[in-house]
Write a structure and sequence with these properties.
The protein contains two helices and eight strands; from the N terminus they run βββαβαββββ. By secondary structure, it is α+β, with helices and mostly antiparallel strands. The protein has one domain. Strands 1-5-6-7-8 form a five-stranded mixed sheet, covered by helices on one side. Strands 2-3-4 form a three-stranded antiparallel sheet. It is globular, with a radius of gyration of 14 Å. The protein starts with 7 loop residues before the first strand and ends with a strand. Zinc ion binds at residues 10, 12-13, 15, 30, 32-33, 41, 43.
């Protein structure tokens, strides 16, 4: 199930991220890039549903937020830029995920 549909914005073109299967896994990618190609938006960074679920549920646990229903209901917007993204929550907190050219792998700030 795509829990974050319509929450994710591409900061390169202002377009929305849409659900797209990636090797049988749920993922999201920039709808401009998908529809019009890299001439319209060069951002081909994909976000896996599993990664969002991991970061959002960890963040909410650390904040002692009790999750009822969808994780996406706690998220106000997710901004994607330069191979990373920032998750803004309804309570004003945020998480940062930077996947960009980091020799140590993905960097999280829950
Ligand atoms: Zn885009």
């Amino acid at each position: 199930m795509y829990q974050f549909t319509s929450k994710i914005t591409c900061m390169h073109c202002g377009g929305k991220y849409r659900g797209k299967k990636m090797r049988d896994k749920l993922a999201y990618s920039c709808s401009t890039y998908e529809k019009k190609g890299k001439e319209s938006c060069s951002n081909n960074f994909k976000i896996k549903e599993d990664d969002l679920v991991h970061v959002v549920s960890t963040h909410l646990q650390l904040q002692n937020v009790r999750v009822e229903g969808s994780l996406g209901e706690h998220v106000s917007v997710i901004e994607v830029k330069d191979g990373g993204y920032r998750i803004y929550y309804n309570d004003g907190t945020d998480s940062i995920v930077n996947d960009n050219s980091n020799e140590y792998g993905i960097k999280f700030k829950y």
